[in-house]
Design a protein that fits this description.
Oligomer: single chain
Pfam family, one: PDDEXK_1
Number of strands: 28
Number of helices: 34
Number of domains: 5
Strand order of the largest sheet: 11-16-10-17-18-9-19
Protein name: PD-(D/E)XK nuclease family protein
Organism: Flavobacterium caseinilyticum
Strand content: 5-15%
Domain PD-(D/E)XK endonuclease-like: 656-922
Length: 925
């Protein structure tokens, strides 16, 4: 039977031993998934039509014995809350969200107590005694009310258990443990009622006490047979965890004192090619899995099997690898079958609903009457992948970003989006009328999103499954809320939603017999594949690690026979080795990163395989890293095409600004992107005022304050009058420049005060100058000047054009001033040598102020010119004029010689920019 799959062997048993009575034969398997594979195995072994036996999962089978309907974890939580309220004093009753924090753990413990058929009052009173012993040293009079409540909680546990058990039993519903306990209680009656039936249990490993009792009872009454699937290597090694449970059953079950143990196989030692591959991060594993599948397809095609993948399984040790894997699969995969649970925490539909809750609850807590929405919350919704392609709100997003809306009233948002889609209206409908209307709105929203998604696209089909999972949770919440009206508050709704969403899971169901199989670890039970790719082979992921989500301590579990992390590890070990048992090609992928959230050392299973390596196994271990090319990074080089030259000519005609020239010096590629390709920065909401915005506000304020004095000499009274206008004018400029942004609080309020202080300090310096006898006449403010520059070394005339902040005449000298919000020192405008002026970015301010002097030279009509900077962070230094050679006597007047030398340098720069043979080459800084 070597290399025959386990289900093929079961099919053979059914045909050889049960063919005459198949209609009365019930096959019980560990999960539902294996049913269709067993039917296929039967089909392959018969040539005539036969009646299929009933094939059922162990959970459904036990449910049938008990005659009780199973309820989902969300419904159970609400039912338990009803019971809790009915037996807890009103003064001590907790809100649902506080209750849920401990109830989920307690329900897990109730479940384990029942599955292992323990006496609940004994276990739960044991826990109370442990807590009493912990507090033993505290005198009665020193016990606080909080401590008393804590001890009372442990005293109440048996009451909680018994009341919930009775409550559920009366309704004919139950959680898994309750159903298992009741099935055992009903076992004799069930066994007598199915005398004509024959049961075949197949492919089990770990069994709880209830399952053991049920199976042994049916075997003892000659109504059942059980077939195990264990390899002799694991069974005969008393230390090997893969055989831990089956060894116990073989030794302890009465049946095996006189009957043979079936089956012990010898498949693991057969020839296997095992490749262990380490790579950084989740995405690295997904990419490698994709390339392995591509190789498998190519190999099978070369063998003439047309790239079939039905004997290939990808087993995800960590569910969040699913989406990266789907994007990494080659297009040649074709058919795909995903069978696994996927946590709602990573579900894109759940993330959207969480963002929706955040936006609306924040709006209600901020100002319920005006319903004020925070822009980030709004944009998070509008740019979500389930909304953005369908809501038609790109114009609205642009408006919010462009106008700096930080907080938007609901009324304003509706105004801004005058023709809203149905999706938009459902997203932004006010949440004011209680929890059920809110949940109904979310339900309609999810339906609308589902209708937007196509069935033709594989990705959208998967997204539909995500949306439908959350849709079911919301509808369950509507159902429970309608029965439990006492918890109807919007404030608690999100907390409850968060509690129940943890219990929800997306279930993917596909066509199991066709194409590549993607599954979780538990879904791989009983199934055999030729090629197996296992991901996330890291400690804490596979096996899952020692999570102790229980009120029952480890030593108590050991004493009472409840499973501990040791047994849970053994379950993982069995699943892992069973995956390898009949496989020929095995790929084990793990994350090599030792830092970060997904970090962890490689799984002990990999080390175990390396240590126990069988003679017939070839095992290789490789690390795949992203390798940088050996050659250094090659700077970007853009040659000047004809269209580039046309664009340069266009810029030369419209005007090169000093900032364009300095951007070229900084990095020619930056100049290429900004000026040639005209790529501008993406518009975003500026929540906190940026330095350039602050600079604009100061510039504009000074322009407005000084505008009345253009062409006039300024007096002391003029400046004093300006002081009175500062507050109103700065506020006005803030609103003009910062638009709808919030300026009345936080860092923006500080920026507002800084702007006022800067303007005030500037006026103080100006007033001091006038008092000291300076005659100041304003010539121009924020005015654009230009001058065409012709030179034989340039291919065409170039217009130098720029916006000058202020030009004044001071004591007969023309002064050209550029305002800088940041700090500028005297050294920044002092030039020691003309050599390499246009190659050093530190000379950018000199290039700028001399450009202004060149542009204004004719307008000065022979009057002496000086050009420089006023730095608002260095106002004490006053006007910082350009001067040449600091070691000589300072002379700030820009004469013909200076301008001539400057233009010579500009020719060098412009001839390089405009030379078709010199490409734009990136500067590596």
């Amino acid at each position: 039977m070597t290399n025959t799959s386990f289900l093929d062997k079961i099919a053979t048993v059914l045909i050889e031993n049960y063919l005459d009575n198949l209609s009365n034969t019930i096959v019980v398997l560990p999960n539902k998934r294996a049913k269709i594979f067993l039917i296929e195995a039967l089909k392959n072994q018969v040539t005539t039509n036969i009646l299929s036996p009933e094939i059922i999962s162990i959970e459904d089978f036990v449910q049938n014995i008990a005659g009780i309907r199973t309820i989902d974890p969300i419904e159970l939580l609400f039912e338990f809350y009803e019971v809790y309220l009915s037996i807890t004093d009103k003064a001590n009753q907790q809100s649902f969200e506080l209750f849920a924090n401990w109830a989920k753990t307690l329900l897990q413990d109730f479940n384990e107590i029942d599955r292992y058929l323990l006496e609940p009052s004994h276990v739960l009173s044991y826990l109370k005694d442990i807590e009493d012993i912990k507090k033993w040293g505290i005198e009665v009079e020193n016990k606080t009310a909080l401590l008393e409540k804590y001890i009372d909680f442990w005293k109440l546990l048996p009451n909680y258990y018994q009341s919930l058990y009775t409550h559920l039993l009366n309704k004919g519903i139950g959680y898994q443990g309750l159903i298992y306990r009741e099935a055992v209680n009903n076992l004799n009656h069930f066994s007598n009622s199915v005398q004509e039936k024959q049961f075949v249990f197949a492919g089990f490993n770990a069994l709880n006490a209830a399952e053991e009792k049920i199976i042994q009872h049916l075997i003892a009454s000659d109504q059942a047979k059980i077939y195990w699937d264990v390899d002799q290597i694991f069974l005969n090694d008393s230390y090997h965890d893969a055989g831990l449970f089956v060894r116990r059953f073989k030794e302890n079950w009465k049946h095996y004192k006189q009957h043979p143990f079936e089956w012990i196989v010898n498949d693991f030692s057969q020839t296997k090619n095992i490749q262990v591959i380490g790579t950084p991060k989740t995405i690295g594993q997904a990419k490698i899995a994709g390339s392995i599948i591509e190789n498998v397809i190519n190999e099978s095609r070369s063998l003439g099997t047309e790239g079939r993948l039905d004997k290939v399984a990808v087993v995800l040790g960590e569910e969040n690898l699913l989406v990266p894997l789907l994007y990494s699969l080659p297009s040649t995969v074709g058919a795909l079958n995903i069978t696994m649970g996927y946590s709602s925490k990573n579900n894109p539909a759940q993330i959207l609903i969480a963002k929706l809750f955040k936006m609306h609850t924040n709006a209600l807590s901020r100002n319920a009457k005006n319903y004020v929405l925070y822009y980030k919350d709004v944009l998070d919704i509008l740019t979500h992948p389930l909304v953005e392609p369908y809501a038609k709100t790109s114009a609205l997003v642009h408006t919010i970003n462009q106008n700096n809306y930080t907080f938007i009233t609901h009324h304003k948002l509706m105004e801004l989006n005058a023709i809203p889609s149905e999706l938009f209206l459902l997203l932004f409908q006010k949440w004011e009328k209680g929890s059920i209307p809110v949940l109904e709105t979310i339900s309609k929203l999810l339906q609308t999103i589902k209708e937007n998604l196509s069935n033709d696209n594989e990705e959208e089909k998967i997204t539909k499954a995500f949306v439908f999972a959350i849709f079911k949770v919301i509808n369950k919440l509507i159902n429970y809320y309608s029965k439990h009206e006492h918890i109807d508050k919007i404030e608690t709704l999100y907390a409850i939603y968060k509690q129940v969403i943890d219990l929800a899971e997306v279930s993917f169901e596909g066509e199991p017999l066709n194409g590549l199989q993607i599954m979780g670890v538990l879904e791989s039970r009983v199934l055999d594949f030729d090629t197996v790719i296992v991901t996330s082979m890291n400690e804490g992921k596979f096996p899952a690690g020692k999570s102790q989500n229980s009120f029952i301590p480890y030593d108590v579990k050991r004493e009472l026979g409840l499973p501990t992390f040791k047994e849970k590890d053994a379950i993982y070990t069995y699943h892992f080795y069973h995956l390898l048992q009949r496989a020929k090609n095995i790929y084990l992928l793990y994350n090599t990163e030792s830092e970060g959230l997904d970090a962890g050392e490689k799984s002990r299973f990999i080390t175990q395989l390396e240590v126990e390596k069988q003679n017939n196994h070839t095992l290789t271990h490789e690390i795949y890293n992203a390798v940088l090319p050996e050659t250094a990074y090659q700077p970007m080089v853009i040659p000047k095409s004809e269209s580039v030259m046309l664009r340069l000519k266009e810029i030369a005609e419209k005007g090169f600004s000093p900032s364009a020239l300095t951007s070229y010096i900084r990095n020619p590629i930056q100049f290429y992107f900004q000026k040639i390709l005209r790529i501008s920065e993406v518009e975003e909401v500026e929540e906190n005022i940026a330095l350039n915005t602050l600079g604009t506000i100061i510039h504009e304020t000074l322009k407005v304050l000084y505008e009345p004095f253009i062409g006039k000499f300024i007096s002391e009274s003029d400046i004093l009058n300006c002081f009175k206008q500062i507050d109103a004018e700065v506020l006005k400029q803030f609103k003009l420049v910062y638009k709808e942004g919030e300026i009345k609080k936080g860092r923006n309020l500080l920026a507002f005060e800084v702007a006022k202080r800067n303007v005030s300090n500037f006026l103080k310096v100006e007033l001091e100058s006038i008092k000291n006898g300076d005659a100041i006449k304003i010539i121009a403010l924020e005015q654009t000047f230009g001058r065409t520059f012709n030179h034989p070394n340039l291919p065409f005339p170039v217009l130098i054009k720029g916006n000058v902040d202020r030009i004044e005449e001071r004591n007969g000298v023309i002064r050209i001033i550029d305002y800088k919000t940041g700090k500028v020192e005297k050294a920044s405008v002092t030039l020691k040598s003309w050599n390499r002026l246009t190659e050093d970015i530190k000379s950018d301010k000199i290039i700028q102020v001399l450009a202004y002097a060149f542009m204004y030279e004719h307008d000065a009509k022979g009057k002496p010119i000086e050009a420089g900077i006023i730095s608002f962070k260095n106002l004490k230094a006053g006007f910082l004029p350009f001067n040449f050679k600091e070691d000589k006597e300072v002379n700030s007047i820009i004469n013909e010689e200076i301008l001539s030398n400057y233009l010579e340098q500009m020719v060098l720069l412009l001839s390089e920019i405009l030379d078709q043979n010199i490409p734009f080459e990136e500067k590596i800084i």
